[in-house]
């Protein structure tokens, strides 16, 4: 990902205020250039701080492109630092992300790249990205998908997540997951149980298994993990050493998967 670029001239009236708001590195660049511009002047007594700052300000107002350069430098540095922080957090959380024995797995369980998805069955954007995830799974036989139930949109969302995880005990997690994710509109308890019945699940057993403490514990782990990764909404994805918040198109996912494959 590249740092953003500000295009066009910077209005002189706000140039100094913009520069004051950016990193010390950017200001250092401006001061260095201003000092260089005045290096040919005969040596004089040390000017007062206010006078020196005014000289810097005047130089920048005469050369506003320095502000653009400084902001670009600052943004690039911030992006690198952000990427390093994300890599560190993902590395520290790798066991929970990739190897939680309670987390359902789709795609190729032995795949070389894992996509971890945090989702809510009543999330509109999760449903929009569901066909993309299915297409990726079908076309990439080395893709592994870890499903992190993250019900944040109310009691029915939690009911749906509990039903899906309880269905896993009957070997039908993915079937119920797909049925609910591909449904139109908001789910209801009756609709969820209807999908389960259509899939041949034992409903009485399902209802009992939905109350398991292990499911509550899994929700707690997923919430803590999402918080540590800075994921506050759905959907959220972790692919390799990168985090993506929100829905994205198939090409974006393909690029992220390719990068993860190149940098295992």
From TrEMBL:
Keywords: Disulfide bond, Oxidoreductase, Redox-active center, Signal
Taxonomic superkingdom: Bacteria
Pfam annotation, one family: ScsC_N
One annotated GO molecular function: disulfide oxidoreductase activity
Every Thioredoxin domain range: 74-262
InterPro entries: DSBA-like_thioredoxin_dom, ScsC_N, Thioredoxin-like_sf, Thioredoxin_CS, Thioredoxin_domain
Protein name as it appears in the record: Thioredoxin domain-containing protein
């Amino acid at each position: 990902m590249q740092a953003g670029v500000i295009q066009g001239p910077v209005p002189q009236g706000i140039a100094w205020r913009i520069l004051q708001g950016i990193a010390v590195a950017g200001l250092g660049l401006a001061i260095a250039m201003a000092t260089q511009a005045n290096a040919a002047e005969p040596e004089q007594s040390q000017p007062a701080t206010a006078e020196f700052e005014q000289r810097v300000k005047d130089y920048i107002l005469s050369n506003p492109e320095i502000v653009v350069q400084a902001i670009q430098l600052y943004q690039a540095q911030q992006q690198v630092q952000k990427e390093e922080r994300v890599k560190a957090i993902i590395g520290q959380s790798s066991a929970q992300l990739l190897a939680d024995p309670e987390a359902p797995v789709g795609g190729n369980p032995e795949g070389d790249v894992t996509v971890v998805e945090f989702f809510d069955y009543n999330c509109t954007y999760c449903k929009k990205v569901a066909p993309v995830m299915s297409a990726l799974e079908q076309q990439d036989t080395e893709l592994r998908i870890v499903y992190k139930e993250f019900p944040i949109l109310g009691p029915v969302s939690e009911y749906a997540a509990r039903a899906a995880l309880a269905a896993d005990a009957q070997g039908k997690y993915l079937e119920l997951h797909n049925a609910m994710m591909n449904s139109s509109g908001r789910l209801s308890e009756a609709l969820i149980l209807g999908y389960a019945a259509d899939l041949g699940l034992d409903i009485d057993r399902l209802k009992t298994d939905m109350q398991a403490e292990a499911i509550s514990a899994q929700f707690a782990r997923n919430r803590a993990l999402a918080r540590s990764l800075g994921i506050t909404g759905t959907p959220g994805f972790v692919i390799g050493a990168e985090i993506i918040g929100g829905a994205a198109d198939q090409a974006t996912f393909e690029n992220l998967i390719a990068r993860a494959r190149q940098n295992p």
